[in-house]
Structure formats: structure tokens, C-alpha cells
Amino acid sequence: MADTAPDVYTEFVKALLDAEATRRTALEDKGGAVITTSGTLVTLLFGLVAVVTGATTFTLPGASHGWLIAAIAFFVAASLIAILISIPLPYGQTELTAAMLASRWQQPPEQAQAAVSGVRLQALAAARRMNAIKARILIAATVCELVAVVMLGVAVLSILDG
Description:
Blueprint: H1 5-54, H2 62-83, H3 98-104, H4 109-161
């Protein structure tokens, strides 16, 4: 439990920075999920096409061809966009040398807490900027995957109807 205002603010800033680190991990995990689901569905589509083209009694209705091709294209686009989430972004780094630390070693605790909180706030600002970029990329990948699923649904309906 924090006893002083500097303790409270130092803990608060650290919690904010920790939350952004957790958000980064969640965004990257969700990007991986988009890659996995899109890749799996494309693989299943290729399997379906292989079975259908090998069958002698079934022909794929022409109306479904365009929808299937578009679905595959959007699944591939979703995967490629989601891969961008894994690209290392410049979150920044804290520069602290032994000489810098030694020159500040005798500071009062409140001054040290203010300095540490200031550095963490800079890291927090950078993390929020980079996470916002990753979030926009994830939204784009998810929209592509959603469009692909809709197109796949239309293709399946045209096959069942045909």
C-alpha cells in the first residue's frame, strides 16, 4: 500500500505502462488468431476445390467461382495484413548508464520517483502510439476476414442453390 503521494503516482504510472504491455500482447495474439483462422479456411477451400474438381458427377456452379476466388483473396489479404502486427515497431527504450545512475543515487526518494515516473510516462506515450497502429492493422485484417467469410457464405449458398 502506498504511503505518500509520490508512491501513489509512481504505482499508478507503472500500472498504466503494464496495461499497455498487456494490450500489445493481446493485439499480437489476436493478429496470430487471424492468421491461423484465415490460413485454415483457405486450406479447407483448396481441399474442397480438389475434391470437387476430382468428382465426375459434380460440377461447381459458375456463379460460385467468383465468390470463392474473392473469398480466398480476402482470406489471404487478412493473413498478410495480420502479419504486419508482428513487425517490430519502435516502442523506444530507456537509456540509463551506470554513470547516470551514480550521479542520481543520492537524490531524495520523491525526486527519484518523479524521475522514474517521467521516464515511464514517455514509455507509456510511445506504447500507446504503437499499440494504436497495431490496433488499426488488426481492425483491417479482421474486416478482410469478415468479408471473406461473407463471400464464402454466398459461394456456399450458390452451390447449394445451383
